[in-house]
Recover the amino acids of this structure.
């Protein structure tokens, strides 16, 4: 087919994997892949990219877009005053992601019993390739195998869950927490060593054995960890202990912003940031990667496999909430939330996420996320990219938040600005590498022709909000904010 052969001519290419940092060049595309310059190139269709910034398609490695808890989120979300819904339909989700230049997304928390349903829903999503992480550690059989220290049985059960559920990875949400929850106890344990009700298994041992099993069975993405005590004051110690427990093993820490709080309670005095101590450890232990789970101000919906955290939040905010499980396995809590600049806790959450982004030394170990829709909608990614890349804009925003946070957060003293190359790393190259996608996140020969073309602008939010053109597997799928081709992408399934 000659019709899907083309060359993007003269674009300003950002491809961090191959050390191209704004170099002008051409990209040749054939049959959905990037290819070397052909001998008969003069006959290929030419698309002018002169003056445009060229990046690989965006990769979101931690989002919530399908399955029963997202459906619950759509029901409970208040109608938006303007703009897209906090929890869009599956069709709008694909269209909105594609219009932002994203071409791959992972749903980070699907109960094994809901996997088939999630796949059916995701098959309707326009454009993006998609994968799911399974909450396989919520299954009683897996917990029993780990308690018996039966590594072979643990590996077999995880392999079976991935095969029958069509999973890409294994996620653990609040290790052991669902067992505490089902026994009528809060799912939090300030240390990782409180054994599960009726069991000799501790959350620490569960984390370590799961990470080892995922490594042994050779999944493309390491164990995806939402650790205990999400959202609670003083929980930074739990995150530090989690990192220590996983030291030497490959593991990915999800939405660390929600796990980086100092203090003993939510009162005005003690709540705050413990990012400095956590980053110091993270920077010197290279096996672990993370995504941030940035909070941005406005209305959204919280949804988590950690029912205890949702219950806690519902009590703290007075909002109605929903809780449900999947055949008594898994579980999730869902409630609306509005993050306010004037709230001490919300202002700290906003600052803490940015502190993570701006103080971690190596952007290759970090993926941009809002834990959509928990911290904010993915549609706010362009705003987040401007906050990272524009220090003056960030200072203005800092000037509007709760005064105690303004004066105490390290942010006031941070001048770092992400370059376009670094923004490309945290939205494409790093998440693709962390997720285990060798054909994505870069523009080398053999890569999927998932390509986004932006008009350079001083206002990074405006620039990243509306790419000029988005290609998915070599097809033009979006242009100036309009969906051009809704064809669904492929399911990413391990093995
Ligand atoms: Zn999440």
């Amino acid at each position: 087919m000659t019709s899907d052969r083309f060359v993007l001519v003269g674009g300003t290419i950002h491809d961090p994997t191959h050390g191209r940092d704004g170099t002008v060049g051409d990209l040749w595309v054939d049959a959905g892949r990037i290819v070397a310059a052909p001998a008969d190139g003069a006959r290929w269709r030419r698309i002018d990219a002169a003056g445009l910034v060229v990046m690989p398609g965006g990769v979101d490695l931690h989002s919530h877009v399908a399955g029963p808890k997202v459906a619950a989120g759509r029901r409970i979300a208040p109608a938006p005053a303007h703009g897209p819904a906090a929890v869009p339909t599956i069709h709008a989700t694909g269209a909105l992601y594609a219009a932002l230049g994203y071409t791959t997304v992972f749903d980070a928390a699907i109960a094994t019993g809901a996997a088939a349903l999630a796949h059916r829903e995701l098959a309707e999503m326009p454009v993006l390739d998609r994968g799911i992480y399974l909450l396989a550690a919520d299954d009683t059989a897996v917990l029993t195998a780990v308690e018996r220290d039966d590594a072979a049985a643990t590996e077999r059960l995880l392999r079976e869950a991935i095969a029958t559920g069509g999973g890409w990875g294994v996620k653990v949400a609040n290790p052991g927490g669902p067992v505490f929850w089902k026994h009528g106890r809060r799912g939090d344990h300030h240390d990782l060593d409180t054994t599960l009700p009726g069991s000799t298994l501790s959350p620490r041992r569960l984390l370590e054995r799961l990470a080892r099993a995922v490594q042994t069975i050779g999944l493309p993405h390491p164990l995806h960890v939402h650790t205990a005590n999400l959202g609670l004051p003083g929980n930074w110690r739990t995150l530090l202990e989690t990192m220590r427990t996983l030291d030497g093993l490959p593991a990915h820490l999800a939405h660390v912003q929600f796990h980086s709080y100092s203090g003993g309670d939510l009162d005005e005095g003690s709540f705050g940031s413990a990012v400095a101590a956590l980053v110091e450890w993270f920077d010197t232990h290279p096996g672990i990667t993370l995504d941030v789970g940035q909070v941005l101000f406005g209305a959204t919906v919280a949804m988590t496999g950690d029912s205890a955290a949702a219950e806690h939040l519902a009590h703290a905010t007075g909002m109605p909430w929903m809780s449900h499980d999947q055949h008594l396995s898994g579980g999730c809590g869902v409630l609306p939330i509005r993050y306010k600049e004037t709230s001490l806790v919300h202002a700290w959450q906003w600052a803490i996420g940015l502190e993570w982004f701006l103080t971690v030394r190596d952007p290759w170990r970090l993926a941009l996320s809002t834990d959509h829709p928990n911290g904010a909608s993915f549609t706010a990614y362009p705003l987040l990219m401007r906050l990272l890349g524009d220090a003056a804009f960030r200072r203005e925003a800092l000037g509007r938040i709760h005064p105690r946070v303004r004066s105490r957060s390290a942010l006031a003293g941070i001048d770092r600005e992400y370059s376009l190359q670094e923004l490309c790393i945290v939205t494409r190259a790093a998440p693709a590498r962390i997720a285990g996608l060798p054909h994505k996140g870069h523009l080398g020969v053999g890569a999927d022709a998932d390509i986004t073309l932006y008009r350079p602008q001083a206002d990074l939010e405006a620039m990243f909000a509306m790419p000029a053109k988005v290609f998915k597997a070599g097809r033009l799928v979006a242009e100036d904010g309009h969906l051009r081709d809704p064809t669904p992408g492929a399911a990413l399934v391990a093995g």
User: Anything to note?
Assistant: DSSP finds 16 helices and 22 strands in the chain.
